[in-house]
Amino acid sequence: MIELSPRQTQAFDVLTEPKHSQISELLYGGGAGGGKSYLGCIWLIYQCANCPDTRWVMGRNTLHTLKETTLNSFFQVAKAGNVRYRYIENKGILFPNGSQILLKDLAYYPSDPEFDELGSLEITGAFVDECNQITEKAWNILSSRIRYKLDEYGLTPKILGTCNPARNWVFSRFYEPFVEKRLDANKMFIQALVDDNPRISKFYVSQLDNLDEMSRERLKKGNWDFLDISGNWVYSYRPELHTGKVELNRSEVVRLSFDFNRNPIACHVSQHYDNHYYGLEQIEIDNCTTYQLCNEIKARYPGCFFNVTGDISGKAATTVSRLQNFDIIKYVLELRDAQMQYSGANPPLAESRMLVNAMLERYPTTFDKVKCAPLLRDFETVKSDNEGRPIKTNRNNIEERADCLDTFRYTMHRWFGDFLKILAS
Ligand SMILES: Nc1ncnc2c1ncn2[C@@H]1O[C@H](COP(=O)(O)OP(=O)(O)O)[C@@H](O)[C@H]1O
Ligand SMILES: [Mg+2]
Questions:
Q1: pTM for this structure?
Q2: Which ligand ends up closest to the CA of 12?
């Protein structure tokens, strides 16, 4: 059996009680761990059970994250509630009474700028998890598709979005008017933070305490104003704390993280032992091939044991050679499969920003002041857009290349992802 928290109950009433029929858009959350994904799954299951043959959407920015996060919450909720359903990969969730939940990727793709695929849907209602990650256009189009079997069940159109504080359309459409008490009559915002969730684990709360200060304000305390969004992408770097002289320790693993632009090609060299992170060197070479770079590394780090990660797009065959970049590295450095530790997809950028800043703020970290100079330059110059992504539109401008920063991000995600395990929930 699933019991709702007081905040979830409040939202659930807005979504299901006839007295709230004028509300067509509900935004719930504004922090991490407030029971957002659970609420959405519980609502959809309830509606599907009560209204046979209805059709609902569960959406998120990408289908990939939807499956890794929200769908898992669905499985947990369904298990706890003894719900019968069938999950069909790439189709959705089917219930014995004919109701269904479609899983939708709501990201903007240049190949479908008008969201034509969404535009042809007819649905009964929609739940968009972390709706601050999609565009307002996707939200508008999805809400305009809510009509299927509404009259039959006496329902009114409802779209539920959940979010963390963000400085984009969600802020201007919901949060700002909410605070200024001028929110449209068809919209509502219910704030739910981790402290409003009595069922949260202690482990989860301690992970939130591990965040850097800005992210803690935002995700734990639900502060929308603390965001210095347009500032530096790396905001927790303090030269006096984070730089010094770093020596290679030959008895420890040397970690290499690659970014395969031809101009420049970049590699971050680091070590981690005795609970301390050491940035040894940031290599950045113009007009250099992966071959040449690896030979250079071989010369600079003779006899060292390497582990490798890097840009996953580097897995694509290059124009220069039919061999793949990672294969070249493996071949030139004479590595085994187990030392090649790239996997999955490149990490989401906004998440990456929190991980990088949390590490700098909370984990003992030292970069060699001289040898890591190109990375430290990126720390000081790369700016963030208002979605928490590094701005890199103009490669001619050195501040917008961020290749060295990328190699550091890959290092963090590959070997320090556990530091903020909760980020992808
Ligand atoms: N109604 C509920 N009943 C039981 N556990 C819940 C409920 N709501 C939330 N939880 C617990 O709290 C955790 C966080 O909830 P979740 O919905 O994933 O939060 P959010 O999506 O806001 O980060 C869940 O993993 C689950 O363990
Ligand atoms: Mg969630």
A1: 0.74
A2: 1
